Every structure is written in C-alpha cells, then in structure tokens.
Amino acid sequence: PYAALIVDAHVEQVRREGHVRATAALWVVGVTPEGYREHLGVWLGASESEASWALVFKDLVARGLRGVTYVVSDEHLGLVAALQRYFPEAVHQRCQVHYLRNALAKISSEALQERTLVGLRDAWGAGTREEALGRLAQLITTLRPDAPRLADWLQDTHPETLACYALA
Questions:
Q1: Neighbours of 78 (CB within 10 A)
Q2: What three-state secondary structure class fits 16?
Q3: The whole model's pTM is what?
C-alpha cells in the first residue's frame, strides 16, 4: 500500500518513427505509510491527457496499488480527471511549487514577486488550515491594490493548495 502519491510529467523531445516529437514522460512516486518514497514508474504518452494518465493509473492498480489517500500533483485537467476516476476517495493537493510558479508568472515586478513568495510560504507554513486561510486572506488583501488580477486568481484558487491540512 502507498498512502500518498506524488505525480507529475515533463515533456521531452523523443525520436519516434523517424521524427522528433514532443512526448510526455509521466511519472509517479509512492509514499509508504512509513514515509518512504519509492519510484513506481515512468510512462510515455503523447500528452498529459486524461487518456494517458488513465493508462498510468490503470497499470498501477493492475500491479496492486492500493491504499492511496492523498495525491500531490499539478492542476493539469487530464491528470485531475484521471485521478478522480481511479482514486475518487483520495484527497488531492495542488503542488505548492507549481502553484507558486504560476502565481509569480502573473506579475513582473520583482518586489511584488517577493511579497507573493514570502506571503504564500508564510501561509503554507501555518500550523492549522484556519490559520493558513487567515494568512492567505491577508496576503490577498495586501496584494489587491498593486496586483488585482493576481489577487483575484489567488482568491479563486488558494484552497487547492491547502489539502495537506487534511493529513493532520
């Protein structure tokens, strides 16, 4: 059994059938109930589509994967849909590293990027979900005058980064 999965992909240029094509390398790391990480495999797919991820999860389940209660990944729609199909009971945590990169890409000011970075890390370091929500609300309030689009995006999406508090 693996209590948690860490799931991601990266795109590589791969020579297939005489052509170089963008190919998604889909990978999964399992975390045992004791906290040890184990590499479960890498699969190649045409993209990060639901169909590609479904083949990965189907293979893992066929190999005996069970006990998954928590999954960390980015928010790729195909990935999330396949996760919901194969592990509907698992809590899904949006990867905070991916989320932080997405947030920083929405602003060009280095000062605002630093405020955002510090504010998000502070919120995610909170001892409780309620405390994290309060810190995020404060961050959004302070960013709104200078970066209203970022503040709106944070308001709409920040709960996706707090599923880790379900583990406590």
A1: 18
A2: strand
A3: 0.87
Half-sphere exposure of 68 (CA within 13 A, CB side): 25
The answer to whether 64 and 2 have CB atoms below 8 angstroms apart is no
Q: What burial letters (b/e) apply to 55-77, b meaning 16+ CB within 10 Å?
A: ebbeebeeeebeebbbbbbbebe
Give me the helices (H) in the chain, please: 50-62, 77-86, 96-104, 110-124, 129-143, 148-157
The H or E element containing residue 164 is none
**Contacts for 139-148 with beta carbons within 8 Å, 24 or more apart?**
139/115, 142/115, 143/112, 143/115, 143/116, 143/119, 146/109, 146/112, 147/106, 147/107, 147/109, 147/112, 147/116
Per residue in 99-134, pLDDT tens? 999 999 999 999 999 999 999 999 999 999 999 999
- Please, what is the end-to-end C-alpha distance for the chain in angstroms? 20
Length of the chain: 168
Beta bridge partners of 7: 28
Contact 161, 119 (CB under 8 A): no
